[in-house]
Amino acid sequence: MVVLGLILLIIGLVLPQSILVTIGAILLIVGLVLNLVPIGGTRRRVF
Predict the structure, then answer these.
(1) In Å, what is the CA distance from 44 to each residue of 3, 4, 9, 38?
(2) Cα distance between residue 23 and residue 37, in whole Å
(3) TM segments (predicted)?
(4) Can you give the pLDDT at residue 47?
(5) What confidence score (pLDDT) does residue 6 get?
């Protein structure tokens, strides 16, 4: 999800479409939050 967010963010910055930048930023933030927050009480950290 983080990689997809980065790709959409880069494409949105190259092409003049602000919706891709918005979707890319949201996916990037959600992916980082899901990656850093332990889910289900486990200490699973994947970077």
Answers:
(1) 19, 21, 27, 6
(2) 21
(3) 6-37
(4) 64
(5) 78
Angle among Cα 13, 14, 15 to the nearest 5 degrees reads: 95
| Cα separation, 12 vs 32, whole angstroms | 19
Q: What interhelical angle do 2-14 and 18-36 show, nearest 10?
A: 160
**pTM, two decimal places:** 0.63
Which amino acid is it at 28? L
- Calculate Rg over the CA atoms of the chain: 13
CB atoms within 10 A of CB 11: 13
Task: Give, as one character, the DSSP assignment of residue 3.
Answer: H
